[in-house]
Specification:
The chain has 212 residues and is α+β, with helices and mostly antiparallel strands. The chain has helices at residues 28-36, 118-126, 196-207; strands at 2-4, 7-9, 47-48, 51-52, 138-143, 148-156, 160-165, 170-174, 178-183. The protein has a seven-stranded mixed sheet, with no helix packed on it. A two-stranded antiparallel sheet has the order 3-4. Helix 1 packs across helix 3 and helix 2 crosses helix 3 (196-207). The N and C termini lie far apart (41 Å).
Length: 212
């Protein structure tokens, strides 16, 4: 828990080792249909091949092998995490072990190596808050007037919180109007939405997305 001039930043998200998730062979064609259809609704937050939203991580090359010999990194989000649904959280990337220095800005470091494993993708879909990349930190702002505002955290200073809203709008929110801010993924868990086979199919589709 971090207190910054009276503004509470809720439970921080830490990376965890991807669990040993046993999945059947996935079918990328079926996975694409779930990803793009109403059950997954992933394009409402993610983009693939120039189609979809800019709010969550672009997944166009999520299945590419790691760059520079790194291992286990991912684009997130997210969603995400994550790979689907907001797949709004982040998957298998560097952990966000601190939201901000006291009163200081939140940076946007260059993305790490690509190429999350199927297990990391599964974790991000089932538990979007398990692993969050530094470049894909999302916040829920509870305003003093009772409103709730979601956004991707871009910067935090003494006076304002700068976010990229789900409407793809860059917004500066005055901190004097914010009651609290929680780092959490807006991506829902798909644990009770997708069957094990459907999860494997979506992951099969994501792993098929390679850099051009």
């Amino acid at each position: 828990m971090v207190l910054v001039a009276g503004l509470t930043i809720g439970p921080l998200l830490y990376a965890q080792t991807a669990p040993d998730i046993a999945l059947p062979p996935g079918d990328a064609v079926r996975g694409k249909a779930i990803f793009e259809g109403s059950k997954g609704n992933c394009l409402s937050c993610h983009r693939v091949g120039g189609i979809g939203s800019l709010y969550g991580p672009d997944l166009s090359a999520i299945g590419s092998p790691p760059r520079g010999g790194g291992g286990g990194g991912g684009r997130g989000g997210g969603g995400g995490g994550a790979a689907a649904g907001n797949a709004r959280g982040g998957a298998g990337a560097a952990p966000a072990t601190g939201a901000t220095a006291r009163g200081g800005p939140v940076g946007n470091p260059a993305a790490g190596p690509s190429g999350p494993s199927p297990e990391q993708l599964a974790q991000s879909i089932l538990d979007p808050n398990a692993v969050v990349s530094v470049q894909n930190r999302y916040v829920r702002l509870t305003m003093k007037d009772g409103r709730t505002v979601w956004g991707k955290l871009l910067n935090l200073d003494t006076f304002e919180v700068q976010i990229f809203e789900s409407t793809e709008k860059l917004t500066n929110v005055s901190r004097k109007d914010v009651r609290d801010m929680t780092l959490t993924s807006p991506m829902p868990s798909y644990r009770d939405t997708l069957t094990t086979q459907e999860l494997a199919d979506v992951i099969g589709y994501l792993m098929s997305l390679k850099a051009q």
